[in-house]
Specification:
Blueprint: H1 2-9, H2 12-16, H3 44-47, H4 52-59, H5 63-83, H6 85-97, H7 101-118, H8 123-141, H9 146-151, H10 159-163, H11 171-187, H12 191-199, H13 202-212, H14 215-229, H15 232-238, H16 244-263, H17 269-282, H18 286-295, H19 298-301, H20 309-315, H21 321-328
Helix pairs in contact: 4-5, 5-6, 5-8, 6-8, 7-8, 8-11, 11-14, 13-14, 13-16, 14-17, 16-17, 16-18, 17-20, 17-21
């Protein structure tokens, strides 16, 4: 019971969507807890001193201090990402270039694999890995470390986290956080990173995430698909003759989701917008246009979502949802 209450106190969506476009995330912070061994507390004020971040990063080397150091760094990054992007990026740079830190973070991910397979997942382990993924977010967001991060194949270790299925609701935290790292990489829309996403079947991975994930995971997966489809190499890959099954699978997955949204329009208006937006992007390619027209869900054109249009307009920060709808119908 205590574990469940602790889980609810964490601002998970804040951590997960913090750098994705069109996101409205509250910036409330939680205070950092005491360090082990009876030492001084890591306060946010102390973390602002010039050597504080390197000192905490060094503490990752000590297994007894690692969990607290991860939590402290994560809390600091959640605070700094909007109010102080310079320090946010500097922390990502320190994390990637400090001796042994990336190996330690990878070890945390691999240790979590063991919990996935032996059924020992719990709130504490999920929160610990979420702190690790928050650090990965800052590395993915920094233009000085982003490409090296991808070239090191570190993001590939997140794919099993995204695809893992379990009835435990707590696991959706991990799935959404892992997807968010990929989303932050792709949102810069740099061709080399989009190509990495294509080469590692990220389109199919996002499709599966839309099927098995909760609302937050679905939204992040749709953000990633939008970023891929806005790159010419991405849309060319998705709409190539060799990818017919892939794009048809996307349309079928979106169709099932649209049918569900038509029955429960309070579930997620923003998901409907992202489906329409991705469909519109596919229509920029001739083959994509034909596939969309052949597989357009009937609920899109029969007026099922007329009452949702105004809500969706607000949820998407003023994007012209109605103009996207008219373009497809």
């Amino acid at each position: 019971m205590a574990d469940n209450e602790e889980l609810q106190e964490e601002p998970w969506e804040e951590r997960t969507l913090n750098l994705l476009h069109d996101s409205k995330i509250d910036q409330e912070l939680s205070a950092s807890k005491s360090r082990k061994r009876g030492r001084k507390k890591h306060s946010m004020k102390w973390m602002k001193t010039p050597m504080a971040i390197p000192e905490v990063i060094v503490e990752l080397q000590d297994q007894e201090l690692r969990e607290t150091a991860l939590r402290c760094l994560s809390s600091f990054l959640v605070e700094k990402r909007e109010e102080d992007p310079e320090n946010y990026n500097r922390t990502g740079y320190f994390l990637y270039n400090s001796c042994g830190t990336m190996a330690i973070l990878l070890q945390e991910v691999i240790m979590f694999y063991g919990k996935m397979t032996d059924g020992s997942l719990n709130v504490r382990s999920a929160k610990r890995l979420a702190n690790v993924l928050t650090l990965f977010q800052s590395i993915a967001a920094n233009p000085e470390t982003r490409h090296n991060f991808v070239n090191s194949f570190m993001p590939n270790y997140l794919i099993p986290l995204i695809l893992f299925e379990t009835p435990l609701e707590i696991y959706e935290i991990v799935r959404a956080m892992a997807l968010s790292v990929v989303g932050i990489l792709c949102q810069a829309r740099e061709s080399k990173i989009i190509q990495w996403a294509i080469n590692n079947a990220m389109v199919e991975i996002c499709r599966v995430s839309i099927q098995i994930g909760n609302e937050l995971s679905k939204v992040i997966a749709m953000h990633i698909l939008e970023a891929i489809l806005q790159d010419w190499s991405g849309i060319s890959y998705v709409c190539s003759p060799t990818s017919d099954n892939l794009v048809k699978g996307l349309m079928q997955t979106w169709g099932r989701l649209v049918a569900y949204l038509a029955e429960d329009q309070d579930f997620s208006p923003r998901l409907l917008f992202h489906i329409m937006r991705c469909s519109f992007l596919l229509c920029q390619h001739r083959r994509g246009y034909n596939i969309v027209m052949d597989n357009l869900p009937v609920q899109i054109v029969d007026g099922s979502f007329q009452d949702m249009l105004e809500v969706t307009y607000i949820e998407t920060n003023g994007c012209e949802f109605s103009s996207v709808l008219c373009s497809l119908t």
